[in-house]
Amino acid sequence: MDPSEVSRLSLRWLDGVATDVERERLFEVIAADASAALVFAQHARFEQLLASASHDRARQAVVMAATKRQQTRHQRQQMLWRGLKAAAVLLFVGPVIWFAWPRPEPERAVLRQPAPRPSLRAQPGQAAPAAVAITEPKPPEPSATLPTAEPPTVPLAQRLTSFYLPPMKFEQVTLAEALRQIEAQMKAINQNTDHDLARLLLQMPASAAQQKISFDSPGMGVLPLVQAIAGLAGCEASLASDSPRLVLNLSNPQIQRQTRTFSTFTSEEELANADQLARDARAVGIDTSSWQVNDKGQRLPPAQITASAGQLKALDALSGARAALAQIPPVRVRALVVPRPPGTENRELTIKERDDYLARGDLTPSATFELKPGTRGVSLSPQKPPASQAPAQLIVHSQDTPLHLTNSEPQLAMNTPSAPVFTLRSMPMGNGQALLVNASPRTASTTGSYANAESSTKFTTGSNTVPDTNLSLQGAVTAGNSASADLIITNITMNHSTAPMMLWNRGSNHYAGAVLSLGGGSSLVILPTP
Amino acid sequence: MPLPADRFLPLFLACQNDLRAFIGAMVRDPALREDLFQEVSMVLWRKFDSYDLTRSFGAWARGIAAKKILESQRTQSRQPQAIPPEVIEAVAAGFSQAEQADTHTWQERESALSTCLDQLPARSSALMAERYHKSRAIEDLAEEFGMSVDGIYQTLSRLRRQLRECVSRRLRLAA
C-alpha cells in the first residue's frame, strides 16, 4: 500500500475517527507489511510526543499563573498594608507634629508607593515578545521615583549570579526570544516575589533584539547567563547600580576579537577541565577542530586562541557556572510523613515550620538523602524502614475516588486541587504491604482494577512536578502499613536547579522545605537538615 | 544474579513515553490506557529480575504490554473492537524499528517540539492544546471551533505535518 495511505489510515485510527472499513484495512496492511507497521509506530510515537509536550506546556502555564496570582496578591497586600501604616502614622503622629511644630506648616511625608511594574517591560509597536522591553538604554531615573525595594541582604548582582536556572538550550533563537525564555524560567521558579528579582527590568538595544544566538547552558545563574547570550549577540550586559535593571549595550566594535592564553594542562583534573573547556568552546561557536587530542581522547586548547569578545565572554560564563555549581555544598534532606496540617495546600514550608518539624522527636524520617545542586537529582536505593515509624498515618484513607481494588482495602487516589499534576494512589497489596502510586495527572479519575500482588511488589511509575513547591518527585513511593514495612522512598528527584535558587530565595542559606498533600489526612514533608 | 532495583528506574523512565505510545495506539479508551500502563509498569518491576540486560528494555516492556492488551481485550468491555494478536505483534515490532532508527532522546524531541509549538499562531496553538492536553474528541473540537469534523481533522493533519517537519529540521540543526 502507498505509504501516504498508510499514514492517512494510521492518523484516522489514532484520532478515533476511522470507520470500520478503514480500521480493517489498516490492521490488514500492518499485519502484512513491516514498513506499514513502522509508519504506524512513527505516527503513534509522534502523537505521544504531542501529548507529552502539551501536558508539559500546560504544567508550565499553571506554574506561571500561580506565580502571577501570588505576585498580584502579595502586591495588593503590600499596598494595603503600607496604606494602613501610612494612615496610622498620619492619624497618630500627624497631630503631634502639627501641635508641636513651632514653624509654619510642616512638609508632608512623601509616601512611596510600590509602583507595580512588570518584571520585564514591553513597549508597544516593538517586534519583540510582549514581556521583553526593547529600548535604547536610558539614563537612570531619579531614585525618588523608583519602586521601593526590600533592603537586600546581599547585593543584587550576587543574588542574580546565584539564582540558578535549569539547563536551557537556545538554537538559533533571537536575543529577544532567549531573554523571554529566561524570564519565563526565572518567574516559574521564583517562589518569593518579595524582592528585586520580581521587578527586574531588562533593556536591550532594538538593533540587537533580532540577533540570533545558540547557547547550551548547563544550569547557570541569571546574570552570567544573560551576560553570555548578550555577548554572543554582540552586546555587553551590566547591572544598573540604582535600580533592578539589567542593561544590554552594543559592544565596542573596536574590540571584536580577543585572544586568550592557556597554560599547560598536566594533572588529570586539569586535563578533564580542558576537555570540558573544549566542549564549551564548541558550544559557543569556537572552532576547535584544530585543537590537539591526547591519547585519552581529550581535546586540549592550544596555548593561545582567538575568538570574538562575545564568544570568550560566553565561554568564561560557562566555565564560571560549572565552577560555581561545584562550590555549592550539598544539602541533607529528609522526608517524613505527618498528619496533614489543617488547610494545607502543597507549598513551601516557612522557616519556623521547618524548625518545628525538626524539633519534633516523634517523627522519624522515612528517607534521607543528599541534594546536590547542579546534578540531575538524587537516586536512592530502597532503604530499610525505621522500626519506630507509625505508618498508619500514611495509608489509612477514606475512599476518595472510585478506584476499585480487588481486596477492597482503603485506598487513595487524589488530585490535589492546588497542584493538579500531582496524583497519588495508595493501594494495599496484602500481607501488610501497600503501594503508593505516583501517577500522571490524567489518571486522577481513572477507574480500573488491580490484582492483589505479592507483598514484595513495590513499585509504580510516574514523573510529576509539583508546581507550588518546585519539587519534582520521580519514581516510586512505596508504603507499607505494618511496623516491618513502613514508607520507603525509593527514589526522589528534586529539580536540581531549584536548590540553589531556594537557598538564595530564602536569604538564609536554607531551603525551608515543602509540604505535599497526600490526601486523606496525611502530608509528605520534605525538609533539609540545617 | 538479581538486577539491582536502581537499574530499573532509568531504564523505565527512558522508555515510558514509548510504552504509553504503544498502549495508546492499541487501546482507544483513555482510562483503560492509563490502567494498562500502570499495570504493565507494575509487572515490569515485578519481573525485572528476569529481564535480560542484553535485550532492549523497550522491546521487553512492549512484549509484556502486548500480553496485557490481549488480556484486557478478553476481559474488558470497554474495548469493544478487539485488535488481532498479529497486529499487536506487528505494531510492537514497528515500535522497535522506530526506536532503533531514532538517534534522539525523548527530551531532545520534546524540546524541539516545544519550540515548534511556540511558533504556531494562537488559534492553532489552542486547537493543539485542546486536542492533546485535554484529549478532546474531534467532534467536540469541531463544535467549539465552529468547523466541520472533516475541517478539524484536516487542520490537525496539516498542523501535525508542519510540526513533524519542524521537529525534524530542528533536530537536524542540533545534530
Strands ordered across the widest β-sheet of chain A: 11-24-25-10-12
Average pLDDT rating of chain B: 85
- Total number of helices of chain A: 12
pLDDT below 50 for ≥5 consecutive residues: which ranges of chain B?
A: none
Number of distinct beta strands of chain B = 0
> How much of the polypeptide of chain A forms β-strand, as a percent range?
15-25%
Mean pLDDT across residues of chain A: 58
What does the secondary structure layout of this molecule look like, with pairings?
The complex is a heterodimer of chains A (530) and B (175).
Chain A: H1 3-14, H2 20-32, H3 34-100, H4 156-162, E1 168-174, H5 175-189, E2 201-203, H6 206-209, E3 212-217, H7 222-232, E4 235-239, E5 245-250, E6 257-261, H8 268-283, E7 292-293, E8 299-300, E9 304-308, H9 309-327, E10 331-339, E11 347-348, H10 351-359, E12 367-371, E13 378-379, H11 392-395, E14 404-405, E15 412-415, E16 423-430, E17 433-439, E18 449-450, E19 463-466, E20 471-474, E21 477-480, E22 488-489, E23 491-492, H12 498-505, E24 514-519, E25 522-528
Parallel strand pairs in A: 2-5, 14-18
Antiparallel strand pairs in A: 1-3, 4-5, 6-9, 7-8, 10-12, 10-25, 11-24, 13-23, 15-16, 16-17, 17-21, 19-20, 21-22, 24-25
Helix pairs in contact in A: 1-2, 1-3, 2-3, 3-5, 5-7, 7-9
Chain B: H1 5-26, H2 30-46, H3 57-75, H4 85-101, H5 106-118, H6 122-133, H7 138-144, H8 149-174
Helix pairs in contact in B: 1-2, 1-3, 2-3, 3-4, 5-8, 7-8
